[in-house]
User: Fold Sulfite oxidase from Hemibagrus guttatus.
Amino acid sequence: MQHLRHCRRFTLVSFPIAPRQLKSPIPAVSVHSRFLALQSRSSSQDQHHSSYRRLRFRYAVTGLVAGTGAVLAYGLHHNKAEQPSIALTQTNSLPVYSREEVTKHCSIEKGIWVTYKGGVYDITDFVAIHPGGDKILLAAGKSLEPFWALYAVHEQEHILEILSEYKVGVLQADDREKEDIKSADPYSTDPPRHPALKVNSLKPFNAESPSAILTDSYITPSAIFFKRNHFPVPRVDPKTYRLKIEGLPGGTVSLTLDYLKSHFPKHTVMATLQCAGNRRSEMNKVKQVKGLNWEIAAISNATWSGAYLRDVLHHYGFGPELAAKARHVQFEGLDVDVTGTAYGASIPLNKAMNEEGDVLLAYEMNGEDLPADHGFPVRVIVPGFVGARNVKWLGKIIISEEESQSHWQQNDYKGFSPGTDWDTVDFKSAPAIQELPVQSAITNLTDGYSIDRNMENVTVKGYSWSGGGREVVRVDVSLDGGKTWHVAKLQNSEEGETSAPSPPPGQAWAWKLWEITIPLPEGAQELEVVCKAVDSSYNTQPESVAPIWNLRGVLSNAWHRVRVKVK
Ligand SMILES: Nc1nc2c(c(=O)[nH]1)N[C@H]1C(S)=C(S)[C@@H](COP(=O)(O)O)O[C@H]1N2
Ligand SMILES: [Mo]
Assistant:
């Protein structure tokens, strides 16, 4: 019984394609016994009694098609017995498919096809009988390789063996090649991107993290960290790279990458970045706004390593004299628009110089060189500040009495009254957004999602974060639109729960993930699931979007609401 309960919750969280929604007639009992077998197999390996949590966490972290090692392995035994397998040796006689054809098979209804090393696989039946189907759907119609590259996969050989049973064809040779060919445009040297990203615009490249897996890991893998570019990605040669700093007592200095790495202590800061326009799409529903239509995942968490900006400035003679005069630190990127204008922004000098500000000249992300999309070779990380100030491909730093005069500091990334529209707006009248307000959102449920009414519990998961280093101290969750509330469990490290010590006050740069399992209200046909976070200043999120609507659709942090059906 213990297992059954775990199992049912497990099913709910990781398997939104409830058996009843499937076309293929799989008797519920068989699905359940499969889950049971999965559960007991894993818990006996684990020898641990909070096995549900651990299993699910482990499952979630290894996520996607990749981590289904155990699941696939399990599937192997059973499928072998139940269906004739197509041997790998049959490859030559298999039909040849174009990528276009493969791409069409991207849903339960049309069948789910994936490719791997030139082979085409129809995994519809596999998805139907295994948990994690929602995650596998991310790869539907696409190539599996990038998904497997995202997380370490242990039983690769084993998975390949299982996959071979689902082989239905081979991919057309010129399509395999074409997939790598780039056209000659300014974006042709942009780096390859992970197919799970939810693309908002291709040129320039803007994409949010796939929300279904965003909170599977506390630290977002760089490949699925949201990406927000205004221009083509500049390809910078680390050997000739120079970081210029203007406005210092001795005039301008120019640093090499080696010098930055070897002359200043290396520090690592974990910080969440959020775009000012995260959740803009909810504002768009109130009234049209201008900007990329971000949903809930223009936010991600990573570790960043590099030199503290304050160490570098001190090294070059920054002292009280300059501090009395200058007020801002401006940053310029090496990325430019067609007119040659570089991306730029600035932050207050005191944030940069503050011992507790932790502003970094970062050259690593998640323990590796910065990826091209995230600012290789150097970007500035301004923890607790809006994404826009975290200038990538950093070319120049200017210590100044003035803010950056860039478009992005002066005429963008500012908040206005819901009563202000384009005919009346005066950008000079509002301050540039720097610290962001408290935020949270639900990641594992989306509008229209169905919950099996036989479930005992509903599990809700999401993220929470606040700007300015304010720590999230509580997340409240409601299943009835805000009439009754429950307090979620917070997670502030990869290990789960609140296992890591709290950061010093004012230095909570990283998000907290949260999760709660609530008994499914009896007889409910629909749930309005809501979350709201409270930060260490007891700031909380506004109840609805309309009163915070603004023409640029920034600072969208109302209670996050998701309507799900109970069937
Ligand atoms: N040089 C440069 N820096 C930039 C940008 C840019 O387009 N060019 N975009 C900014 C914006 S608006 C955001 S939200 C963050 C996104 O950082 P990410 O792409 O690493 O997630 O980078 C900021 N830094
Ligand atoms: Mo942004």
Notes: Residues 2-180 form a domain with the Flavocytochrome B2; Chain A, domain 1 fold (CATH 3.10.120.10). The chain is about 25% helix and 25% strand. The pocket of MTE (ligand 1) is lined by residues 225-230, 273, 275, 333, 335, 343, 373-374, 387-388, 390-393 (CB under 6 Å). Confidence is low (pLDDT under 50) at residues 1-91.
